[in-house]
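Hi L., both proteins are below.
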Amino acid sequence: MSMRVLRALGLGAAALTLSVTSGPAALAATPAEAPAPAQARAAASESYYLSLGDSLSTGYQPGLGDTDEGYADRLHQVLKAFRPGLKLVKLGCTGETANTFVNGGKCAYGDADSQLDAAVDFLRAHPGKVSYVTLNIGANDINACVRPNGVDTTCLTSAMQGVAANLTRITQTLKEAGAAGTVTPRYVGMGTFDPLLAAWLRGPAGQEQARQSVQLVAGFNALESGVYRKAGFGVVDADRLWHTADFTHTVTLRDFGTVPVNVGLVCSLTTMCTKGDLHPTPAGYAYIAAAFAVEIATGRESAEG
């Protein structure tokens, strides 16, 4: 992962020891950094970064609620260096599922019936002015299937089918809504990390639960990545970012001793191991923001989009 991007986000060296190495590419790779004079004037004019999703997009933290320290806020700080007039518009909704994203019922959006409708309205009202759209959604759909003694497989099958259908509709609708302008947004989506890896700390039974949870999250992320790529979105590889399946390499944490690196990341960058809450810490949100920044700078949207 780019040292320049990470430093810009205030992510310290301790976190870097657990980060994913993605080569030397940095935000220097984005065409916006070395524009022609006319492009430079356009980049300095008013433009928007539209952030969509669930509580990760709102920067939720336990005891504080939604904050301005989420990944969207941190990413916005970096993107503004290349587009000084860039404004952040956050439509995310804490507790949102892929189903409520489409159909509404969780958060209010004025005259719009849902987050999707509100996003479409915004894109259509600002043709050619929305530079970036980020999205994370669907984790709450599958989290609802987790029970104290494991995962309800019947619930999970239905949830995964619902996420596939709703995310397909979401991505296609957003792309269509953003296509009206001469400049179209850069779309990037992300799956999820595995908060149930924290069960590793509970001994053999918890460690078995942690291993089983990785299969669930890998399946979910594969499904979402496929939908995103088919729609032409860039993708933050959540499994790679969080080393989700890596039980082989270990790290030593002050409060928890030596644990697998995937567990170490969850314990270090979320409050799951300390408060039983899956949401990232400010450093965790910065870690996610860095991954989005690198994808925006170096990724290429699918030709299908």
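That was the first. Here is the second:
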Amino acid sequence: MATKTVNLPISLASRKGVPALAKLSEANRVALTSHGRVVAVVDSPSRADDQARDITEAKRAVLEAAADLVAQRPPRHTLDELCERIGLDADRVRRRATEISTNAGSDSLPTAINRQG
């Protein structure tokens, strides 16, 4: 069941006092407004707890759905398989990766891979 939200100007809430605001929030969510803009919301503890529980359950459902998608993902390929698919020499790619990681701390930029061998 949807909770009714009551907009209440801060000036009126101030005149009525905190006890009246607490009483009103037992049955309704109260949106305190200033110049027509909502600046705060007062709600009952049970509704706040219910909403927090709903959000936690929704997060858990999203995580479980994501885990199911990952579990259904096709297996990953090895470097050798990928290189074979696109016509590269896997050993050459490994040597180049080692060269780049070795030179990572130097000021010189690594040279491009020469596809001719």
